[in-house]
């Protein structure tokens, strides 16, 4: 077994696909390929995987991800139209859009690239950075005044330690304390929860602690696995909910892959605005004769 190899855990029935992050003696550190779970395992409990697409769990996760992206595209196509003033609600769209800007910090470089690809497809202005979860508070401190985002996502991998399954203690989690410190940094930068929307956490993260630190949305109320795209879905909905409206929490969470046990949050105003005039429309109507 070596770093970067795709494996499953035999003792768990091969239910989830992992990539080996590091090997120490007879133990391996694992990062989920579809779910944001950080785990460790004896090497002799691991089995190499040559065709990951043949795994049932991987198939389901990727089908769900495709469906989630399809929903985001459909919602993106219709966003804001019902809130437009009557004189703007025309086929010619004589206005321009200003979705909320996202700063996405991710502990997994592969997930970061997938997330940025989704933001790009949906025309959400976004900047991203890959860093270890423990470095996120320092990276946020540097990037927040530079990027000046409307929405911050701090995510990566997490998990409840087997030998410390006390949900109330931060020491029972692999990375929740790092996410919590990151939320503190975000709130020191901007205290108002409607001016900066913070989405924090990964698989099995300490939901209550992250909300208490100032996150608007966090994982995981039921200490379950969350899909790689769940934080992205929440951020996209925040980016495209009009600034005069409260983000529909129940609807957002119901349409994440993980659902109510995976993601929760508080009432928050959206970050989407429109403006006039649409410069492209003006240019097309200019009479140069």
From TrEMBL:
<protein>
    <submittedName>
        <fullName>Sporulation peptidase YabG</fullName>
    </submittedName>
</protein>
<dbReference type="InterPro" id="IPR008764">
    <property type="entry name" value="Peptidase_U57"/>
</dbReference>
<dbReference type="Pfam" id="PF05582">
    <property type="entry name" value="Peptidase_U57"/>
</dbReference>
């Amino acid at each position: 077994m070596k770093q970067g190899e795709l494996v499953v855990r035999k003792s768990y029935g091969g239910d989830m696909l992992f990539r080996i992050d590091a090997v120490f003696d007879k133990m391996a550190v694992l990062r989920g390929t579809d779910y944001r779970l950080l785990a460790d395992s004896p090497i002799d409990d691991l089995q190499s995987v040559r065709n990951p697409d043949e795994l049932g769990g991987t198939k389901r996760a990727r089908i769900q991800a495709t469906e989630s992206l399809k929903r985001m595209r459909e919602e993106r196509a219709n966003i804001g139209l019902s809130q437009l003033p009557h004189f703007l609600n025309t086929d010619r769209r004589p206005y321009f859009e200003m979705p909320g800007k996202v700063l996405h910090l991710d502990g997994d470089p592969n997930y970061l690239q997938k997330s940025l690809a989704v933001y790009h497809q949906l025309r959400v202005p976004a900047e991203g950075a890959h860093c270890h979860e423990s470095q996120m508070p320092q990276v946020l401190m540097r990037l927040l005044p530079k990027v000046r985002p409307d929405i911050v996502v701090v995510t990566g991998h997490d998990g409840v330690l087997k030998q410390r399954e006390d949900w109330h203690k931060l020491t029972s989690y692999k990375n929740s304390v790092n996410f919590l410190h990151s939320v503190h940094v975000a709130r020191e930068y901007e205290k108002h929860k409607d001016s900066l929307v913070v989405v924090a956490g990964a698989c099995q993260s300490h939901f209550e602690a992250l909300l208490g630190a100032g996150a608007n949305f966090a994982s995981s109320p039921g200490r379950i696995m969350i899909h790689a795209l769940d934080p992205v879905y929440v951020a996209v909905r925040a980016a495209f909910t009009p600034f005069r409206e409260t983000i529909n929490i129940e609807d957002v969470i119901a349409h994440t892959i993980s659902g109510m046990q995976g993601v929760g949050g508080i009432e928050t105003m959206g970050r989407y605005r429109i403006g006039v005039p649409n410069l492209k429309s003006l240019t097309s109507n200019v009479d140069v004769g």
